[in-house]
Amino acid sequence: MWSFSIQRDLGHNFVVDAQYIGRAGRSLIGGYERNQLKIRENGFLNAFNAAKANGESDLLNRLTAGHPSRAAGESGAAFLRRFFTTALANNDVAGVASALNRTIITSGGVQRILPDANGFGPFFLHFFRYRSLVCLCFFPIFEFVFDQPLT
Predict the structure, then answer these.
(1) SS (H, E, C) 89-110
(2) Of 25, 63, 65, 67, which is most buried with the most CB atoms under 10 A?
(3) Can you state the angle between helices 44-52 and 93-102, rounded to 10 degrees?
(4) Does the model's pTM come out above 0.70?
(5) Phi, psi (5° rounding) for residue 65?
(6) Helices (DSSP H) in 29-149: which residue ranges?
(7) Side-chain-facing half-sphere of 20: CA atoms under 13 Å
């Protein structure tokens, strides 16, 4: 936040006061709440837990198809166990979901996020996509004061 003001006495009981107040915000997050992951409603939590317990999941097979780090012939659950070892050990479901949701792949000549490219849509893991905002707010204030002598 910054401000600037100037005040002048113009004589004969007349004062002019001009002020400027400004604020700036950078890299603000808009329309995104990390706790709004849809991991229960869409089955991702069950798939995560299956992978953690050395099981398999058809959802993970379809969701991670085309991921650049997934080996040929590797199942989606095996990929999670290999690629997200620490996240599985720490039970970081949100971290894995966010990482998959940020993965960009090219499908049909178009770059899309992984869930969207695999037919799940862009909002499969999150209600909202986040975007960085910049806000500049300016408040010019002009105040004219007429001082009257007390009688």
Answers:
(1) HCCCHHHHHHHHHHCEEEECCE
(2) 63
(3) 110
(4) no
(5) -60, 130
(6) 44-52, 58-63, 76-83, 85-89, 93-102, 114-117
(7) 4
Residue corresponding to tokens 């909002």: 123
Give the distance between the most distant pair of CA atoms in the chain.
Answer: 95
Per-residue pLDDT of the chain (151 residues; tens, 9 = 90+): 667 777 888 777 777 777 777 776 666 655 545 445 667 788 999 999 999 999 999 999 999 998 999 999 999 999 999 999 999 999 998 888 888 888 888 877 888 888 888 888 877 876 544 444 444 454 555 554 444 544 4
What are 99's two structure tokens? 């990482």
Amino acid at 135: C
